């Protein structure tokens, strides 16, 4: 048992008196020492051992607080697998000062979660950037570091939720095969155990072992606290010292993991047989520790093999029709990890041929070495990804968890430097040293003299030595402190109507790393012209990034890597959207490339064949997946009045397959020529750019590209939908996790007087992080890992939708539906309290403010509002209408529009196994 925090704090009073004077001279709070600063990230150390990383980014209107404990599944003992992950769940239950942490986080409007890996556990949350929120977050994290309940009652209620998460993973054949391969590759080391753990260990772990695990590892000397976003460092350090400083350094000494996996001395094979519709092939190779100098060259070699579409495996398997997808994953961990190649095949594919081709391609590096062109391509992609990540402080704050668990957060920069300096010879040597048959797990055991790959470890002393005095690159530009209120957004936004019909929307501002986000919306066709041809819209859009008249798919990918930018294209019938993430220096070239992709696609025969194979494989895989089966059936139920030629029609799976198989290059070219144009386009930019340069470029590049047909939005109208309710269950054999989906259409646009009330009413019911449904079905009853509801209405369509969904064990599905019905009936009868509504209004408004602080999302919202003729003033008005609501008004609106008797409910899972009493 621990002493109360106040008592423990008094033990340090004398020490603090001696250190206060020295600390004051340095300008730091007592007990805080500056360790190093690298590229804008500063490390501090508290006397109790806590590591603190501060990453200031005033361009964000948010603060991310990420608390990482250097403990994961690798630290679990026999009978304890999954314990670190189980403890992660319990740390959200409550602590001395925060008895209901879910509700507490929700009350701050935080976006939060936790995750458990092999080497670490972390808890991260993003808040609106206020001093009050920062202080509150640090108070919370310091309290649950040492005062979490970790009680038997919490374990009992959370057990079904964790088991449900386990069962959900068990539904995924690829994920299960991944776990089996690792458990075969690692005979002794803890990396052979999945962080989710063994079912028996999860279900039977004594609470005393969980409490002991918590007491041992959740201590300041085993933790890394990251604060990123908009804050002032002196104030942050003052708060860190106030809340974490009194926690004493523990007396115990953590024992380092001393198990070393012996060198593998022969190929190994594992076979998994389960219900499914897709074949999967994996090949894993042991790799050096994540901090080892060989890891980066080996990772580059892996990408040269597994990249899409340049990779050798892609060319040997996908382009030859032996597989529909290939890829590679590198596990960069504290101890020696792994490089894993994978391939997916349709059910009727030749698995033996695919396996032979994969092994031949990997082994072929000995006779066909990597080339300078291959190394440079992968290097450019890796460095581009790093640069984009560094412009997102929220993402880096979370990524630092992994780097700290490998040995030191500065490895993130050292890893980048190693990518820069890796030579062709380094990559080839690493490939030959580690990618050898005796080090592979996907083969038969063959007697003979072993050819071992000796795997080296890296000690913490080695890590410290290699990073002694490390400085890194120059700190990048910080950007401005932008106020994401609707009024300020409108005041800073310029809207221009260009010749030819293009609407240009520009919000220039200074951003971290000079980043900029942009979207190009092409609106085309109408209900009449898209009836029939509209079926080609989706696959036409998917083909746009696969080659233009002057650039191949690989050329496009290489160009984006060179420009350190991202470009994605998506859409459906009547709309194609290009999303861009770039920088001020490269924006012009990326915009030009995006317009070329949209305007001049080549539709290569080989790429269409590949896309069709991938699509067919994925569709076949969905036959036995509960979520896919139920979601398609639910959508077809409401849309069944549409004819098969209507763009709003929902196909059966077999209709989908038949259509994809029949698509030709000629049909896609004709669809593009008949519909695509810029006469009704919207182009939106948010970030650091030159407005005059952008205006000239967009006008020049889109000039003369007229839309061939009239345009009007194709809308789902309430009058066209089926409105009769039904209840259906779909049996999906061998699927331990079931899916529940329910809801109803509502005749309403977002201009309806009741829209604000339904919006906030649903938020409390099932959209808030700790909603009524979440608190009851997951928190209190422990029936589901994930449960929630949504409500959406459109500016133009009058077919609003209310939807509820959940995952659960098949035997619990009836209970989930019963609890949902009861909870909604209670709300429709009694409504919410005024206190509950007031709290929801506050957190809902904070979440919207946080959402507007994300430039990519803001660009999309500005694009939509421009399309329907709105400004952000509409958001301000909506928020004012929500704030003015009373609990009685919310209840009455929900009563008027939500009716359990009119809702359709569908479920999918292995209900036959439940009925027969059998289970795996």
Describe the 3D structure.
This protein has four domains: 5-244, 2-Layer Sandwich (Cytochrome Bc1 Complex, Chain A, domain 1); 278-388 and 402-466, Cytochrome Bc1 Complex, Chain A, domain 1; 486-702, Cytochrome Bc1 Complex, Chain A, domain 1, CATH 3.30.830.10; 730-916, Metalloenzyme, LuxS/M16 peptidase-like (Cytochrome Bc1 Complex, Chain A, domain 1, 2-Layer Sandwich), CATH 3.30.830. Helix 31 (813-830) crosses helix 35 (887-897). It has 920 residues and is of the alpha+beta class. It is globular, with a radius of gyration of 28 Å. The strands form four sheets. Strands 1-2-3-7-4-6-5 form a seven-stranded mixed beta sheet, with helices on both faces. A six-stranded mixed beta sheet has the order 12-13-17-14-16-15, sandwiched between helices. A hairpin with a 6-residue loop joins strand 20 (786-792) and strand 21 (799-808). It is built from 36 helices and 22 strands. It is 45% helix and 17% strand. The two termini are 39 Å apart.
């Amino acid at each position: 048992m621990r002493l109360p925090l106040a008592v423990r704090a008094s033990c340090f009073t004398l020490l603090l008196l001696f250190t206060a004077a020295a600390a004051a001279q340095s300008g730091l709070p007592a007990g805080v020492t500056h360790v190093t600063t690298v590229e804008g990230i500063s490390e501090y150390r508290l006397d109790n051992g806590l590591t603190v990383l501060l990453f200031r980014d005033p361009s964000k209107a948010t603060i991310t607080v990420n608390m990482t404990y250097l403990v994961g599944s690798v630290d679990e003992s026999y009978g304890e697998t999954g314990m670190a992950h189980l403890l992660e769940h319990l740390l959200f239950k409550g602590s001395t000062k925060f008895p209901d942490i879910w509700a507490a986080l929700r009350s701050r409007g935080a976006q939060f979660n936790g995750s458990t890996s092999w080497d670490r556990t972390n808890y991260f949350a993003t808040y609106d950037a206020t001093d009050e929120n920062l202080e509150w977050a640090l108070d919370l994290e310091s309290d649950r570091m040492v005062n979490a309940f970790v009680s038997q009652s919490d374990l009992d209620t959370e057990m079904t939720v964790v088991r449900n998460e386990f069962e959900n993973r068990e539904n995924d054949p690829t994920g299960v095969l991944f776990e089996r391969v690792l458990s075969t590759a690692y005979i002794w080391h803890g990396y052979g155990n999945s962080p989710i753990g063994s079912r028996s260990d999860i279900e039977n772990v004594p609470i005393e072992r969980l409490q002991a695990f918590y007491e041992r590892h959740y201590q300041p000397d085993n933790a890394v606290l990251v604060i990123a976003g908009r804050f002032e460092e002196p104030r942050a350090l003052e708060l860190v010292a106030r809340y974490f400083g009194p926690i004493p350094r523990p007396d115990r000494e953590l024992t380092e993991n001393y198990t070393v996996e012996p060198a593998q001395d022969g190929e190994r094979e594992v076979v998994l047989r389960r219900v499914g519709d897709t074949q999967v092939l994996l090949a894993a190779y042991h790799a050096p520790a994540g901090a080892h100098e060989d890891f980066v060259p080996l990772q580059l070699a892996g990408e040269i093999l597994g990249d899409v579409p340049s990779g050798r495996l892609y060319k040997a398997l996908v382009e030859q029709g032996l597989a529909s997808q290939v890829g590679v994953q590198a596990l960069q961990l504290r101890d020696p990890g792994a490089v894993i190649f994978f391939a997916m095949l349709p059910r009727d594919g030749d698995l033996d041929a695919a396996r032979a081709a994969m092994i031949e391609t990997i082994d072929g590096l000995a006779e066909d070495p990597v080339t300078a062109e291959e190394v440079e391509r992968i290097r450019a992609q890796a460095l581009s990804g790093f640069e984009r990540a560094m412009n997102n402080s929220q993402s880096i704050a979370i990524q630092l968890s992994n780097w700290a668990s490998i040995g030191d957060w500065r490895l993130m920069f050292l890893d980048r430097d190693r990518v820069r300096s890796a030579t062709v010879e380094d990559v080839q040597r690493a490939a030959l040293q580690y990618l050898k048959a005796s080090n592979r797990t996907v083969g038969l055991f063959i007697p003979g003299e072993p050819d071992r790959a000796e795997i080296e470890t890296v000690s913490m002393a080695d890590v410290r030595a290699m990073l002694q005095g490390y400085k890194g690159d120059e700190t990048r530009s910080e950007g401005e402190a932008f106020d994401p209120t609707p009024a300020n957004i409108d005041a800073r936004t310029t809207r221009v109507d260009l010749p030819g019909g293009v609407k240009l929307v520009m919000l220039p501002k200074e951003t971290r790393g000079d980043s900029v986000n942009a979207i190009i919306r092409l609106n085309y066709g109408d209900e009449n012209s898209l009836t029939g041809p509209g079926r080609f819209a989706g696959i036409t859009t998917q083909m746009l990034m696969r080659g233009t008249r002057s650039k191949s798919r690989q050329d496009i990918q290489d160009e984006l890597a060179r420009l350190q930018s991202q470009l994605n294209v998506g859409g459906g019938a009547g709309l194609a959207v290009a999303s861009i993430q770039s920088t001020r220096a490269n924006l012009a070239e990326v915009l030009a490339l995006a317009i070329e992709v949209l305007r001049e696609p080549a539709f290569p025969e080989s790429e269409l064949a590949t896309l069709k194979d991938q699509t067919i494989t994925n569709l076949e895989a969905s036959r036995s997946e509960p979520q896919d089966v139920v979601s398609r059936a639910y959508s077809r139920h409401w849309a069944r009045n549409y004819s098969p030629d209507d763009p709003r029609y929902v196909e059966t799976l077999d209709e989908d397959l038949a259509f994809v198989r029949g698509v030709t290059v000629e049909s896609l070219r004709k669809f593009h020529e008949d519909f695509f144009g810029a006469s009704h386009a919207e182009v939106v930019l948010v970030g650091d750019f030159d407005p005059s340069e952008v205006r000239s470029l967009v006008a020049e590049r889109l000039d003369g590209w007229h839309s061939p047909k009239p345009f009007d939005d194709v809308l789902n109208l309430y009058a066209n939908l089926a409105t009769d309710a039904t209840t259906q269950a779909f049996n999906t054999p061998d699927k331990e996790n079931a899916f529940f989906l329910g809801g109803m259409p509502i005749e309403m646009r977002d201009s309806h007087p009741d829209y604000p009330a339904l919006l906030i009413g649903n938020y409390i019911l099932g959209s808030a992080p700790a909603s009524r449904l979440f608190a009851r079905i997951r928190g209190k009853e422990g029936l589901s890992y994930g449960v929630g509801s949504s409500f959406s209405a459109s500016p133009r369509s009058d077919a609003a939708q209310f939807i509820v969904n959940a995952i659960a064990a098949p035997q619990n599905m009836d209970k989930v539906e019963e609890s949902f019905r009861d909870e909604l009936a209670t709300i429709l009868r009694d409504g919410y309290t005024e206190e509950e509504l007031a709290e929801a209004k506050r957190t809902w408004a904070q979440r919207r403010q946080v959402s507007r602080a994300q430039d990519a999302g803001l660009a999309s919202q500005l694009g939509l509002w421009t399309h329907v003729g709105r400004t952000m003033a509409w958001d301000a008005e909506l928020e004012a209408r929500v704030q003015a609501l009373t609990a009685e008004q919310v209840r009455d609106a929900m009563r008027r529009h939500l009716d359990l008797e009119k809702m359709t409910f569908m479920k999918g899972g292995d209900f036959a196994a439940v009925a027969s009493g059998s289970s795996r």
